Structures are given as structure tokens and as C-alpha cells.
Amino acid sequence: MDRIDKILANLGYCSRSEACAFLRNVRVTAALRRITNPSEKVDINSVGIDGEPLDHPHGVIVILNKPAGVVCSHDGSEGKRIYDLLPSRWMRRNPKPSSVGRLDKDTTGVLLVTDLTKVNHALSSSRRGIEKVYRATLDKPVSPDLAVAFASGTVLLKGEKTPCLPAQLRITGEYSAEITLTEGRYHQVKRMFLHFGYAVLQLHRSRFGTYTVDEIPEGTFIETTWTPDGA
């Protein structure tokens, strides 16, 4: 049981100071009984608004097919944000939804977004060894030697104190390759290629654990779930 004003504020319907007016102007019910007192405690599972259930009362987790040109930042001064692709009410939730890790502005593909902080921390942890698969287009032909180098576990990136964990590289075309990582260092794929003199022209994350965007149009999202057994 929790106060109705706290529930409404945490789910982004109104602030706690606005709850009294919200309850007066909008039909909020608990177990089909109208609620008008902002301090009344109710079961969140029984609450309805104008006859509809609450919007994700137990948390949001979605798979977004990130397009190029949007940033994984809450700061609107950095340009269009991934959060502008989500329902505006979600940005008033407490806590706000945040991306699980980040993709560069020009990188596309799988991005998980959630307001469940424990889920975010679990999926972000390098200890889980979650595979991230990327498709890269490069500025020059891919040497077969790169597969051996990426898998060696000895690639030490500029500014790092420990080498990258072994990564799989599969050549998919003269100028393209698929890379599978189990960690997520800053700009890791681009920096690994740069270490060997390659520039990444395009980068797409095709898989994060078991999550893909194969059936999700670019710039849109679908709801999903997560269990501690795996991503």
C-alpha cells in the first residue's frame, strides 16, 4: 500500500503538489472506488485512471531500434535524444528511464531502456559477460589477421590500463566485419579498429544478449521483459 499522490508522481501523471487538483479533475479509482484524497493509501494494482489501468506501474523496459543522429543523453542541448522517441510522460517518472549503456550518436541498433535501476545495473555489469554483436563498415579492406588480434586478449587501447577481453571478429565482406564483445568500454569497437589503423564508417549493434531489433522499425520500440537468468 502506498499514498496515491506518491504513486501518481512516480508514474509521471502529476507532481505530488499537483495531485489534489489531478484527483479532482481526473477520475482516479482504487478497487473501482473513486479516490479524491491525495494522502489515501491504496494498492497500486487496483488503481485505474479514467477506467484504464496505470501505465507500467511496476516499471518500464523496452527495446529501442536506435537510429543515427540521436544521443543517449537526458541533456537536450546535445541534440535529439533517444528519450524523445518514447512517450513524454515516461520522462516525468521517478526514476526516469535510462539507457542500458550507450551507443554513439552515429551508431544504430539495439538499445535497452528502463526505469528499473536494478535491471539496468545488472545488464550493464561486465561480470555478466553479456554478448554484444556489432556490424562494422570500415574504410579499407579487412585483414584476416584482425580476427586473431581481436581474439588475443592483448589489445591495449590508448588511455587504458588493462587489455580488452578476447573478442570475436568475423569478416563479412571486403570492407565489413561482425564483432562480438562481452564488455562495453567507451567507444570500444571504434577504438579497437583504430588501434590497428582502421576507421569505422558505419556501426550497427545487431544483438544485445538475446535482444535484437530484427522486427522493430528504426526509431521505434517494443516492450520486453528481463529475468536474472539472462539477457
Can you characterise this structure?
The protein is of the alpha+beta class. The protein folds into three domains: 2-53, Structural Genomics Hypothetical 15.5 Kd Protein In mrcA-pckA Intergenic Region, Chain A (Roll); 61-125 and 216-223, Alpha-Beta Plaits, CATH 3.30.70.580; 131-208, Alpha-L RNA-binding motif (Alpha-Beta Plaits). It contains five helices and 15 strands. The strands form three sheets. Strands 7, 8, 9, 10, 11, 12, 13, 14 and 15 form a nine-stranded mixed beta sheet that branches. A four-stranded antiparallel beta sheet has the order 3-2-5-6, with no helix packed on it. A two-stranded antiparallel ribbon has the order 1-4. A hairpin with a 2-residue loop joins β5 (47-49) and β6. The radius of gyration is 22 Å and the shape is elongated. It starts with a strand and ends in an 8-residue tail after the last strand.
Short description:
Helix content is 16%, strand content 27%.
